[in-house]
């Protein structure tokens, strides 16, 4: 079975193989939107429209102006929600390529081809940055460098607009082999689970939010 991976799907599997299997492969259950996810979606849309179309932020989100203003004013080629994908041989491909292996969609991407530098930003609307995971920036940086040969350095940011925190990470082409090897290993763990058909559940505090009502750890 050919799988198309992403940062979120790998994190889902590592969080709970049973949930991953039931939701992403069997599609027996569907995660429901919450107040928090709906808020995040609305903020993302407002940021995209401000940066891409110069549409003012709604009054509800005016407090986030200092975060998005510098992004809109950045030099270079600016792209919002840019779809990127690679094959298992690490070659770039289209998002829905039949052989796609890994997909990613950075919220914000600024490419300065002359300087060989790109900036990748992912917006976060959580109330805390305590569990920030820069691995998301790592795989995005790798995909940017694979898609754009002129880019040699990627400066990544997790922008926690509600928590008012900025988490930064920087990657260069010298990091590519390590990054790709790491993510190939994480994706391989999922593909091996498919081969052997073992999807053990993993109990955690997130079980109360899980849609898989048939699981023994379900707390809904």
Can you tell me about this structure?
The chain is α+β, with helices and mostly antiparallel strands and 220 residues long. 36% of the residues lie in helices and 21% in strands. The chain contains six helices and nine strands.
Feature tags:
220 residues; alpha+beta; Lambda Exonuclease, Chain A; five-stranded mixed sheet; 6 helices; 36% helix; 21% strand
Figure out the total of helices: 6
Strand content is: 15-25%
The topology string of helices and strands comes to EHHHHEEEEEEHEEH
The helix content is 25-40%
Give the second-level CATH assignment, the architecture: Alpha-Beta Complex
Gap between N and C termini: 31 Å
Structural class: alpha+beta
* Major sheet strand order: 2-6-7-8-9
Give the secondary structure arrangement, pairings included.
Layout: E1 5-6, H1 7-15, H2 17-25, H3 35-53, H4 65-72, E2 77-80, E3 84-87, E4 92-93, E5 100-104, E6 108-112, E7 117-124, H5 135-147, E8 153-160, E9 165-172, H6 176-196
Parallel strand pairs: 1-5, 7-8
Antiparallel strand pairs: 2-6, 3-4, 3-5, 6-7, 8-9
Helix pairs in contact: 1-2, 3-4, 5-6
